[in-house]
Amino acid sequence: MLSVFLYKNRKVLTLILLLVMSFIMMTIGTSSFSLNFKKIFLTVIYPFEYVTNSILSFIKGTWRSIGQLDTIRQELNKTRKRLQELEQTSGDFNTLQKENLRLRRLLSEKSRIPYTYVLASVVAKDPQNLYQSIIVNKGSTDGIQDKMPVIAYKDGRIGVVGKVVETTLHACKISTIREANFYIGVILETSRYSGLVNGRGMSKTIRLEYIDINAPIQLEDNVITSSHSDIFPKGLSIGKVKYIDREMGKFFLTALIEPSINFAQLEDVYIIKRLPSKEIEKLKTKKNQ
Fold first, then answer.
1. Which of 87, 90, 153, 247 falls 20 to 30 Å from 207 in CA-CA distance?
2. 201 exposed, middle or buried (CB, 10 Å; 0-12, 13-18, 19+)?
3. What is the rounded end-to-end Cα distance, in angstroms, of the chain?
4. Domains parsed from the chain with CATH numbers
5. Those residues with Cβ within 8 angstroms of residue 226's Cβ, 6 or more apart along the chain or in another chain
6. What is the pLDDT, as a whole number, of residue 189?
7. Which residue has the higher pLDDT, 59 or 148?
8. Helix, strand, or coil here: 9?
9. Whole-angstrom Cα distance, residue 141 to residue 135?
10. Could you tell me which residues come within 8 angstroms of residue 184 by beta carbon, excluding any fewer than 6 positions away?
11. What span, in angstroms and rounded, lies between the C-alpha atoms of 186 and 177?
12. Burial class (CB in 10 A: 0-12, 13-18, 19+), 274
């Protein structure tokens, strides 16, 4: 049996024998033939120890790198969250700053308006119909009634917004001067010629009519409310002249006016607690019969 085993494994045994002899020869000194078993042991073990240490070092380095990546990821998430908080804080601060400026402006405006009024905020407006009507957050419980005039402050002047046409308990609808059926008596501020303004519906300008053909009207002339208006106080800003049509042979000229109020930026309005005179309303009704 032993001879069979040796025969079958002769190549492996030969290789082992050669390796042992090589290790022995490496440890033989030049002056003596004594064997240094310690060197043999170290020579045999060193390659395995080197590979093992290398593998362990690689594993430790990889594990340490994974831990560092996880730490970096956590710090990055914290930084992102902090940045979002700072952005939110910055946005809130800007919003508060704008609201503070708005309140300061309103406080300054309120001291300059010589009428009994109700301050209201715009809660709905439709840009698709060029702001012919808007809705505000004050209604009959605040003393608001139909036909009350509505104004706003713009560039240091009080401008006409429109008039109340529909009221609920806590809100009301305002027809603006752009609405096609809106009419108001006006005068040219410089020459004092009187006329009538009416809205043009889906147009950014309103029409000025019935101005004497000989009136010295010019572009950029201011148009203001006249005493002919029973709803609006006298002297409120309507807008500026942008186009003049002085057709020969006619008694009156027409012009196009750019409203002084920018309805796209309108946030707050003042509803004046003033109603048309009942006596004048009766006379107007009789005249139209």
1. 153
2. middle
3. 141
4. 117-275 (2.40.10.340)
5. 185, 186, 187, 194, 234
6. 93
7. 148
8. coil
9. 16
10. 160, 177, 196, 197, 198, 225, 229, 231, 232, 238
11. 12
12. middle
